[in-house]
Amino acid sequence: MGRNCGGIETANPPQSWSHEDRRVARKEEWAMNRYLAELVGTFVLVVGGCGAAVLAGDKIGFLGVSLAFGLSLLAMVYAIGPISGCHINPAVTVGLLLSKKFEARYAAGYLAAQIVGAIVGAAVVLLIANGVPGGYDAAVKGLAANGYDSHSPGGYGLVAALVAEVVLTFFLVFTVLGATDVKAPVGFAGIAIGLVLTLIHLVGIPVTNTSVNPARSIGPAVFVGGWALAQLWLFIVAPLIGAAVAAGVYLGLGATRPLLTPREAEQALPGEQAERAM
Question: Which bin fits 226, alpha (ψ -120 to 50), beta or left (φ > 0)?
């Protein structure tokens, strides 16, 4: 028998419940499932992407780390897309919200779940990294945290980091909006979104270690502390600006017709769903 987070039984609600009570209970359970999916998805993104950078970066290089982030997102699009739409990024949530493709009442829950998932993911990466002789000092080695000036892999300054993060986040959010358009091939959005995240990392890793995702930046920064927390503001503000610009440009191109939601876009076609149910 199913329960929601408050312990209310929802799979077989009491006969005394009204139709409205049942409807509200189902909506609450569905919302919690969406939040949990976002937490799990962001956790996978951070462990897969930041884990690759921290644990294998010296072996796989920038290309390998870029692919790790792209593949993590691609996998999650199809794993949790039918549940939550697979935002796993506050910038994507804001972009979809501004584009009227996401309900505002769920925004706070999504953002909280994404941040928690990122922090837990960074904690797991740190736990694994500490398994080597001598341990792993996050404050010294960085835990794949984002930074600029002396904390940029290529020594890029604040302005370069700001511009890169705004532009690259624009790439990501604009792709999400376009790939989930009503005219886009249904079920293929994840491929475009995963590939553009790979491209974004190929460009952005030398500049900032690539954020384009405030939650991804918050996770490692919590454990690195010091400089990572001091510079964190840029990796929150810049992606949100990029998301707002992407939403504005997309709507400005005339995308006022009905659009598929991300959740609908990641679902199989009705015929494919029927085949899977057989």
Answer: left
